[in-house]
Every structure is written in structure tokens, then in C-alpha cells.
Amino acid sequence: MIPFGVFVQVADEIEGPVHLRELALIPVKTSADVVQVGDNITVVVNEIDRERCRLSISRRKNLIRRRVTPCVPATVPLPECS
């Protein structure tokens, strides 16, 4: 956990931050209001910045999708970074 959200592992050796505003459907003050260390959560990879080797990740968008339609996992090629 970090002051502005949490880091999640999306694949082996690939992690990225989820900002507080992307953790829940309603505003939260701390990530501990929503998740705890070790929790398994489903997220959406919004964007892959291959040049800077960064991911934009959201749990909120997954929660919205689940309200509208069942979530189907997609296979997305993730960047290889050194």
C-alpha cells in the first residue's frame, strides 16, 4: 500500500499502481478502506505506455463493467521491461 493507492501484480513480475480514485465506486480516504495487503482483486488495464514501461490500472472500471455485463478476462500482451 502507498499513500495514493495500492500496487497490484497483474502478471509474473509485472506490477502497477492503482490510484485511490480507481479503487472503488465511491470516494475513499485510504486504500485500507477497500483492500488489505494480500487481497486478490480484479482490475482493468486501461493503458499500456510501452515507452515509459508503465500501466494505467483501475479496479473501479471493473466494478462498473460487472454492473453492466459479466466480466470476461482478456489476454493483453504486457510490455517487457528491463
Comma- or semicolon-separated keywords:
two-stranded antiparallel ribbon; mainly beta; single chain; 29% strand; 82 residues
Describe the structure.
- The protein is mainly beta.
- The chain has one domain.
- Helix content is 11%, strand content 29%.
- It has one helix at residues 60-68; strands at residues 5-11, 14-19, 44-49, 54-58.
- The strands form two sheets. It has a two-stranded antiparallel sheet with strand order 1-2. It has a two-stranded antiparallel ribbon with strand order 3-4.
- The longest helix is centred in the last third of the chain and has 9 residues, at 60-68.
- The two termini are 24 Å apart.
- The model has no long low-confidence stretch (mean pLDDT 81).
In summary, what is this structure?
This protein has 82 residues and is mainly beta. The chain has one helix spanning 60-68; strands spanning 5-11, 14-19, 44-49, 54-58.
Order of helices and strands: EEEEH
Number of helices: 1
Distance between the termini: 24 Å
Low-confidence stretches: none
How many beta strands in the DSSP annotation?
Answer: 4
Radius of gyration, in Å, reads 13 Å
- Main-sheet strand order equals 1-2
Mean pLDDT: 81
Judged by helices, strands and strand pairing, the structural class is mainly beta
Q: Biggest sheet: strands, sense, closure?
A: 2 strands, antiparallel
Q: Which descriptor suits the 3D outline?
A: globular
Tally of individual domains: 1
Strand content: 25-35%
Helix content: 10-25%
